[in-house]
Structures are given as C-alpha cells and as structure tokens.
Amino acid sequence: MVWVRYGLPAALAVMGVLMLVFGSATNRWDGFFMAIGAALSILFLNVLFRAGAKGDEERASEEAAREYFAQHGHWPDEKR
C-alpha cells in the first residue's frame, strides 16, 4: 500500500525529471509535465480517499457513542 501511495508518485516524478533531462527538444517539456501531473493526481486522489475514509470512522464513532447513551443514559465523555 505504501508503494501505491508514495512510491508510484515518486517514480513518476523521477521519470518526469528524466524526460526533462534526457528527452528530445520537441517533447521534453510535454513528457515532464505529463509525468508530474500523473504523480500529483495520484497523490491528490490518495488525499481525497483518506479524507473520505476518515468520515466513515467519525460516523462509526458517533454511532457507538449514541448506543452508549441509549444504554447508560449519558454520553461516554460526560463526567458524572
């Protein structure tokens, strides 16, 4: 999983730099920007996915707190 999150974008960014350095005069900038764009898109998709997964965890935590309230009559973090 770490490879997909960080290794793949890093490899694409390195490929972009290599295209910039060793590419022909007609397509070096195109290859560079395409590889960097692909790397950034993978990173941003990872951020969006993790933000969505965090929302699921928060909903599960809230549901557990509501079940606790229904059984005990007070919230789990309330001092009695």
Can you describe what's shown?
There is one protein chain. The chain has 80 residues and is an all-alpha fold. It has one domain (2-72). It is built from 2 helices and no strands. It has helices at 2-22, 28-72. Helix 1 runs antiparallel to helix 2 (28-72). The longest helix is centred in the middle third of the chain and has 45 residues, at 28-72. The protein is rod-shaped.
Number of strands: 0
Element string (H = helix, E = strand): HH
Number of helices: 2
Task: Please give the largest β-sheet.
Answer: none
Helix/strand class: mainly alpha
Distance between the termini: 44 Å
Proportion of β residues? under 5%
As residue ranges, the low-confidence spans are none
Globally, the shape reads: rod-shaped
Helix percentage range: over 70%
Number of domain modules: 1
Overall mean pLDDT: 90
Q: What's the alpha carbon Rg, rounded to whole Å?
A: 23 Å
What distinguishing features does this structure have?
80 residues, mainly alpha, 2 helices
Summarize the structure.
The protein has 80 residues and is mostly helical.
What topology does this entry show?
Layout: H1 2-22, H2 28-72
